[in-house]
Write a structure and sequence with these properties.
elongated, 140 residues
Length: 140
């Protein structure tokens, strides 16, 4: 159990990187899939698409880098994890604000809240003594 808890942050971050990359591929290759993620009908699709670069750089690249760094116990892994956590938090707050303003975008907001919870679980798991007993440490 301790080993699986210790590996959770890396596994979660790798999964997050793959899922976010896959989500963006879906949006680019099948434009009809964008509609549920556009916050409001008065907002152009370019509002959604403007998040591609930051998502790919910070959520995909950052999550993969943090996962690798945590798995290999690199000293730079924790700062990268916290950059990703801050990026997820900012995007979640943006979605909450946009949903509050427009009354739409519940799907985007729900998914971002789930991602924020996943990042919190990574932090909580890594802060537990069982994770340290396994010889690995996650973000602190």
């Amino acid at each position: 159990m301790a080993a699986s808890r210790a590996n959770f942050p890396s596994l979660y971050l790798y999964t997050q990187a793959v899922l976010v990359a896959g989500w963006w591929m879906m949006l680019w290759l099948a434009p009809a899939t964008r509609t549920p993620f556009v916050m409001h009908e008065s907002w152009p699709e370019t509002t959604l698409l403007s998040f591609a670069l930051p998502d790919l750089a910070l959520l995909v690249g950052g999550s993969a880098a943090a996962a690798f760094g945590l798995q290999c116990q690199r000293p730079w892994a924790k700062p990268v994890f916290w950059i990703v956590a801050g990026s997820v938090t900012y995007a979640t707050l943006w979605c909450l604000g946009a949903t509050a303003m427009t009354g739409s975008g519940a799907l985007s907001t729900t998914l971002m809240l789930a991602m924020s919870c996943g990042m919190a679980c990574c932090w909580k798991c890594s802060a537990g003594s069982k994770c340290k007993a396994a010889g690995q440490s996650g973000p602190r």
